[in-house]
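I'll show one example:
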Amino acid sequence: MSLLVIQAPVGAPNLNLPEISVKADRHDLARRRWRVTASDGQELGFDLLKPVRHGQTVYETTTHRYVIQQHPEAVLVIDLNLAAATAIGLGWAFGNL
């Protein structure tokens, strides 16, 4: 397979077509130029004016479409069964680490 160069997401994708996953992390999605291999082995090179987002179709054929799937990220969940002022203080502290 040859490299597909993507310059913008598909404007009006056919949502009835089966999806082929193009997995990327948030760091790649924030970039305008990057390269990835889709789940079917197709290589895609991105040369974008604006970054793409999770769920966008970036390429489409008559039989399938390539859709961005952002890797899940680990998160920290904190039960804030506390007074509002204490919860606000903790939020500020975590946000400014």
Q: What stands out?
A: The mean pLDDT is 93. Strands lie at 4-6, 19-24, 33-37, 43-47, 57-60, 65-70. Residues 55 and 68 are 5 Å apart (CA to CA).
